[in-house]
From TrEMBL:
It comes from the Bacteria. Signal peptide: none annotated. This is N-methylhydantoinase A. GO terms for biological process: glutathione metabolic process. It comes from Bradyrhizobium canariense. PANTHER family: 5-OXOPROLINASE RELATED, HYPOTHETICAL 5-OXOPROLINASE (EUROFUNG)-RELATED. GO terms for cellular component: cytosol.
Amino acid sequence: MRSDDQSISVGVDVGGTFTDLVVYDARTSEVRTAKVLTTPRDIPAGIFQSFDQVSAKLSEAQYVKHGTTTAINTALERSGAKTALITTRGFRDILELGRGNRPDSFNLFYQRLPPLVPRDLRFEISARMDGQGNEIAPVLFDELDGILRELTAQGVEAIAVCLLHAYRNPQHERAVGEHLRSRSSHFVSLSHELSREWREHERTSTAVANAYVGPRMERYLESLQARLTKAGLGGTLLLMESNGGVMTGELAAQHPVYLLESGPVAGAVAAAALTRKLGYDNAISFDMGGTTAKCTLINKGRIEIADIYYVGGYEQGYPVQVPVVDIIEVGAGGGSIAYLDPAGSLKVGPRSAGAEPGPVCYGRGGTEPTITDANAALGRLAPSGLLGGEMALDTEAAKRAIHDKIAAPLGLPDVQIASGIIRLAVVTMSAAVRRISIERGHDPRDFVLIVSGGAGPLHASAIARELSIPTVLVPPLPGHFSAWGMLLADIRFDNAQTYIADLETADNLDIEAQFRSMEEAARKRLRDAAPRLETIEISRFIDVRYAGQEHTVRVPAPRGFSSADAKAVLHKTFMEMYAQRYGHADPRGKLQLVTLRVVLDGLVDKPRLESFRPKATAPAKPVATRQAFFDESGWVDCPVYQREAFAAGQKFAGPTIVVETGSTTVIAPGDRGEIDDLGNLIIHVASRHTVSDRQPEKAGAEAQ
């Protein structure tokens, strides 16, 4: 609930290049935005710079919702705490043994990333449970004290604890955790507090990752909270979780592994809310920022959730067994660097110019051409520069960098190289969309592509055309869409419990009792975290598989599993989902339950999408005309419009450039655009055949 003097909500997304902020005032429905360059050396400094830009009064804020890449960057850069592992005797080497598989089978030089905990800092204890959670050997505290003395002598900052079968009975882990916390100041990470699912390697890896990033995240959040409090924040700091919800700063400091995809998932949350509002059944959220591009599938208004995430990628990385929005991420952002490899082939990404120094055209010392520089050289960015004209662009410097670094060595025209950089980036990003849709059994032609990020709308039409997606939707404030999505996120708790049983013989009453126990535990956590929240929503899921298979399908479970038809409903739903994903299903196959899941959302006050209704009543006129290059037409005169000047229902034809404070949208030749009642820019994408037949002289049609 909101107090009378706390009318604003704040969403702030810290990316690799820009820090985006959105402020929503519930009393006036006013939306204010800021976009500043990220300050890697002092991240809160960029956050407070964005506050100053919009004159936000933190004393009036009910929530400050924050998405951060600090946790994932700490893991990827291996800049975390010196960490030790305490595990059951015989499991010291589980981090290296893993699953014993080789994901990249034909790579002769294949190597996994080295474990976050070296072998000399992994310790075994005698305590042991059996597979049913019965004690075989007790915890020996003298044994722990000896380990603790050695860890202190070696300067260890964090301790991960993962004991065998703790997902079934965490009594031993709790005892070890209490003992360590009472006798030392180490950051202690217990596997059962993060995951109550089986898979010893994945649980161990999760506990280790949480311990590894924990001290740094704890210091960062304590510092940020202190600075916000000093600035007058009377509301609550909430952190964006990887599962699409938010959690309190206190919980985030204890469980930072839940924040690994903190920033990217907020855009998917906003896209899902938009699809439900507009009545779309299916959508693909595509967010291209300065460093990476991310895409997520939205199926029937619901974001797909995965139960394992790989830090550093599946082929080489570390598994983290926590709920995370099923997101595909590629190293193709506006700052991705274009270069020639040793063989003389043109490559784009994944290296990024980031915020410092940034693309060459930013004039901040960058020397290597990027995707943004290619767009500038092709005339596709606003003549006045970025951020509403506050950031001037040095287009000539971008052209020189493309010429000197790539075009001259290859002996090719500059414009051909700039266009080639864009085409390579589009192919990379289209492959990500293909992985999230076609490889999951979905036809992208049945989806609308919701595009956001500062760089996403520049390439939306090309990506959609590559995959024959007929409709692109560019929401209001696309450059601030992730920050906006944070304002739409609820406080969320995920509970999961491994429960192995055959569907045919499973005890309905016992399953219902398990669900109710998990729901009550989630309610208690919500009451502790946000006692003033009054409205909750609870969803149930069961991971189901065919007997004899390894992996599962997450199936919505009926409310009230004690009912007579609950099993039949679950069976029918599983068959439909399995057939959708794999193209076939055997209705006579024996099914097995693996994991029960409960998702509890504490519903917070949210801004209304109606706040973005166009205010203009007369059709917009171009504010400028500039020469822009398209493969379909060559150099053409292209009208430039201000997004804010469009009226609802206005239609226009490509090529057209639409500029706004945080982003630029390009409508390519042959495509058509229109503005809907909520201010969304809808692009109707022409097919490849239509575009290839288009005559250059027809480009640049006037808006209506």
